[in-house]
Design a protein that fits this description.
Radius of gyration: 11 Å
CATH topology: Structural Genomics Hypothetical 15.5 Kd Protein In mrcA-pckA Intergenic Region, Chain A
CATH class: Alpha Beta
Number of helices: 2
Helix content: 10-25%
Order of helices and strands: EEHHEEEEE
Shape: globular
Length: about 70
């Protein structure tokens, strides 16, 4: 089951999501993290930290699934 990650607005970038969920400590680590760890967005491998994510998108990192949801 995916863990919901609430965002403000209608978009968040992958690097920001990884920081928000404490998978990386800072922006400088995101590029290396994406090179070392397989990250999937909606079932497709993603290596771009600037990838735009929208409510409904599913991000899988290792065994964890994150679902982007709009903050009410």
């Amino acid at each position: 089951m995916a863990r919901d990650v609430q965002i403000r607005g209608d978009m968040i970038r992958l690097g920001q999501l990884l920081k928000l969920t404490d998978m990386v400590d800072g922006g400088g680590e995101v590029k290396e993290f994406l090179a070392d760890v397989e990250v999937y967005v909606n079932g497709e491998r993603e290596e771009r930290r600037g990838r735009q994510l929208h409510p409904g998108d599913i991000v899988r990192v290792r065994a964890e699934e994150l679902q982007v949801v709009a903050r009410p």
